[in-house]
Structure formats: structure tokens, C-alpha cells
Amino acid sequence: MSEVFSSPVLRVEQPRRGPFAKSRYKVLDGDGVVLAIAAPTDEQGEALAMRGLFPGKSNLDARAVLLTTPDGEPLLIVDKQSGWEYTEVFQPDGERVGSFVTERAGRRYVIYDDDGTLIGAVEVDVPRNNFEVTDADGVKVAHVRKKWAGLATHLLTTADKYAVDISDPVREPLRTMVVMTAIAMDMSLHEAKEIT
Hints:
- The chain is an alpha+beta fold.
- Helices cover 16% and strands 39% of the residues.
- It has a twelve-stranded antiparallel beta barrel.
- 32% of the residues are buried.
């Protein structure tokens, strides 16, 4: 994955849509070139349609997104399990890249590689807008920041934007997991915008 996401500065954005349109993202480099597009996986089509009709606290729902190149070549799958506890990242062939596991809900997540070895952690600030990613030794390797777009945008659309600044070099698979931090944290912490 490092060749696709090789830029040390990336942006992850959700398109501006109504509050029920979830789990769609664009990954761009620092110059605004689209590197990847993420959309819900096909298996979720019916469940997503039903959630739009009968919304609930969507950050508790299980869902997955498939990242592809702009030309449609599959890159990664981000699979968020039900609840806040567990999100996995897979290659298109089903091989696991790693996982985010909740250590303290909404505050700290640990990152494991495909065989369960601890490779890093994500520390979350109180407003859940800044995510400091460290390696297994506690050394900061990246900062992911959710940009504030205003109250109306926050409440009425899915238009979240994240800046990902990576302190290169970061070895794989941690580098891929760093890039996926914005999507995993958004799916876990920021998608429940329904007024219920």
C-alpha cells in the first residue's frame, strides 16, 4: 500500500451529503490528487438502505468500506464490527493488514498487525478531533486531525475532513494503518449524527 499512500501529507474527506449518507470517503495527497475512493461494500447495500429509513445510533452499527483506486482497482477493506471495540483492515484477497482495538472507548485504541503483534496506538483528545498515532515504543509517527466545518455542516451533513501528517519513515503495516486511522475513527466516533 505504501506506493499508493506514499505522500507524507494526506487528506481524507467525506462528500457533503445528508445525515444518513454514511461511509463514503476520498483519500487525497497533499496536492489534492485523489488516490483512493471508499464506498460501502456490496454486502451492505440492503442494510444501509434500511438504516436510512430507520436510523439509529450508527456508530454502533457494523459496516465496511472498500477502498479502490480512482480507476476501480481494489486496495483495502476497512471492516468496523458492531459497537466501538474492533475495526479490521484487509487486503482485497482477504489477508488481514491489521486491526484497531478499543482500549478506552473514544480515548485510546491499540493497533495490531495481521498476526496480533502490537505495532502502535491511537490517542484521542477529548473533543475527538485530534488523533496522535504512535508506534509500539510510544514514538509519534503521525497526527490525524479532524477539521471543524461549522455547526450546520457538522449536524446536517457527513462532510467530515481529516488531515493526515505522517512522520516518515513509517514501516508497513503501521503506515497503512496510519492512513486508515481517519476512516476507522470516523466510522467509530463521528458517524452518529442522527437526531434520535
